[in-house]
Amino acid sequence: ETGVTQTPRHLVMGMTNKKSLKCEQHLGHNAMYWYKQSAKKPLELMFVYNFKEQTENNSVPSRFSPECPNSSHLFLHLHTLQPEDSALYLCASSRDGTRGPDTQYFGPGTRLTVL
Amino acid sequence: AQTVTQSQPEMSVQEAETVTLSCTYDTSESDYYLFWYKQPPSRQMILVIRQEAYKQQNATENRFSVNFQKAAKSFSLKISDSQLGDAAMYFCAYRDLIQGAQKLVFGQGTRLTINP
After folding, report:
1. Smallest CA–CA separation between B59 and chain A, in Å?
2. Distance in angstroms (rounded) separating the CA atoms of residues B41 and A36
3. pLDDT tens figures, B11-28
4. Which of A78, A84, A97, B19 is most buried when burial is the number of CB atoms within 10 A of its CB?
């Protein structure tokens, strides 16, 4: 279970802070994803990158800013968050998000608490 | 828009017995993929099984099998000989076959408890 790693695993931040979540995949994949998992709600896709290009932005507020410098790394920059943004943020990767069954492999997540 | 519904928020089963988790979905597409993912308490989501809609044969992976009813848009997961390690949240997910489509749509999840 070390194919997709995420740091930090836990993060507590105030509404005025700026922080970043990091995801790294060691699987040689070309597609990477950010999901938000809130209590009692289905996983929500936030962003998709395929070959470093953003291909999906699921109407995510601008206080979440993704960055994908290469196919192995994905960041989620956070600023002026709201308490309702507290959730588990999951990163995933897949071989090629544009074709085939393309199984997604997930990281362990970052548990974010916004005070 | 596609939707996925898991109507059982929680299920429990005795160890070594069989349990079936339900999933229904809504789509106007004829070709697509369906998945069951497992999220143990340690939180890392892993794939359990997947099904291509154009294949009539139900997928199986060891103790895990699906009952895919395309006309009814139903995709249930059967776990045979349940083990303590099967305790987890189980998510059903849907994905279009359309080239370029990368979106996985998840259900709300079913929490499975295994009673020793």
Report:
1. 13
2. 17
3. 999 999 999 999 999 998
4. A97
